[in-house]
Amino acid sequence: MLQRAFRRQDTWAGLMFLGVGIAALWIGRDYPTGTATSMGPGFFPDLLSFLLCGIGALVTLRGLIADGEKITGTALRPFLVLVAVALFALAVTSGGLVPAIVVLTVVGACAGHEFRLHEVAALTLALAVFSVAVFDWALGMHLPLWPAW
């Protein structure tokens, strides 16, 4: 019974919600919560984390009790989008904005159905020029554009 329950999508989705909620509670543990009339900076994140944990518990229980859809396989494309965003976050601080945009668009394009090099190159160039124009020139946020060698 329990082995079949862990093959259901609801069980894993609920456990994921629980995990994210618990992680958010742990990350924000040092923020003062305050009271309902005098809210501290940790009040709203704690409230959302508790709600997420509650939803996760309900969805997990539903997955354990009721019959639901079984997990058929792992989709790689949505995972590649998450990897692209994570790589961008790592690359923008160490490698600069322009190389980070190249990494983001190339890895993100790999998540699509078709990978056309000329389209990816044009998109990369357009995003890089637009980002430099907006963040560096228009807003004056002087991010490192290239790696500091």
From TrEMBL:
Protein name per Swiss-Prot or TrEMBL: Tripartite tricarboxylate transporter TctB family protein
Keyword Membrane: yes
Keyword rRNA-binding (UniProt): no
Residue ranges occupied by any DUF1468 domain in the UniProt entry: 12-144
Keywords: Membrane, Transmembrane, Transmembrane helix
Originating species: Ancylobacter mangrovi
Transmembrane portions of the chain: 12-28, 48-67, 79-108, 120-139
